[in-house]
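Thread title: Can someone regenerate the structure for this chain?

I was given the following input by a collaborator and told the matching structure tokens would be attached. They weren't. Posting the sequence so someone can regenerate them.
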Amino acid sequence: MDASGEELADRVRALLTLDGGVEEKRMFGTRAFLLDGHILVGARSGGVLLVRVDEEHGAALITRTGVEAAVMGPRTMGTGWLDVSPRALVGDDDLAFWLDVAREDAARDD
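Best answer:
Regenerated them for you:
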């Protein structure tokens, strides 16, 4: 992963330190942050945040500026996996919004 991806991972880590049970793993070239074994978010090369959401919620969120369906290898994923560009993650409040979205959607899955 490149420097901007590592920087994003550091920011994510700092905001998630209060959450018990969050685990960090390298997966598919991404620094993934998991809760109870399920991916919440991932820091990707280029400072892109991969966010796992409920498909219906993702369909609404994909309309936001700087958000698109995640691409993994040759595959474009459905609206349950979103890539959020660095320009949409400028401040910690922006990043915290996406972390909250991922946590809320993960809680719905349980």
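Helices lie at 3-16, 55-61, 92-109.
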